[in-house]
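Suppose you are handed only these lines of text.
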Amino acid sequence: MAFQLPELPYAYDALEPHIDARTMEIHHTKHHAAYTNNLNAALAGTEAEGLKIEDILANISKYSPAVRNNGGGFYNHNLFWEIMSPNGGGEPTPQMNIHKAIERDFGSFENFKTQFTNAAMTRFGSGWAWLCVDGNDHLFVTSTANQDNPLMDIHDAKGTPILGLDVWEHAYYLNYQNRRPDYVAAFFNVINWHEVTKRFNDANPGRSEF
Ligand code: MN3
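From them, the structure of the protein bound to manganese (III) ion can be written out as follows.
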C-alpha cells in the first residue's frame, strides 16, 4: 500500500490569522502531495515498499537522496498538520504530562519557548525546528536541514519528534515574506498541546505517571 496524503484535521482557513488559508492549501495540496508522490515513486518496486515510514527514516543512510528528501517531507508534514489546531496555543495545562516534562527539562515554559524559537531562527535556509524525546525520556530542542528529522540515523541528536515547525519559506512567505520571527511567534498561537502530550506519552508507553 503506497503512502497516502492525509486530509487536514481542519479547514485551510482554520488557523487564520496566524497561518493564512492560501499558504495552507498550497503547502498541503502541492508541497506535501509532491513529497508523498515522489516518495512512492522512489520506493516503487524496491524491498522497502510496504515498510513503515518510521522504519525507513531510522535507516535512512541506506537509502537514496530521493527517499531521504521525500520520506522526510512526507513524515514531517504529517506531524506538522496534527500538532496545530484552531483551538491551540497558550501553554500546556498542569494536568498534561508535557507540562511537567517541560518544567523538568527546560526549567520553565518560557525557557523552552526561547530555545525552540532560537532553533527556528538560527536554522539557516530551509529546515525544521523540533521538540523531541531522547532515549533517556528527556526532552530536547534541535533543528534539522531540508526535510531531515531526528528519527534519521544520520542526525546527531536522535529522538522522537513530538512538535515540529516548518521554517521553509514556502511555509510562511505569502503572508510574512522575510519575517520569519513573526511566523515563529504566530506558531505558538496554534500549537495543539493535547496532540503534543499524546505524542509525548506514546514516545515512551512504559513511563510511569508524573
Ligand atoms: Mn513544508
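What can we learn from it? The pocket of manganese (III) ion is lined by residues 27, 31, 77, 166, 168, 170-171 (CB under 6 Å). The helical segments are 21-43, 53-58, 65-82, 97-106, 109-122, 173-176, 180-187, 193-203.
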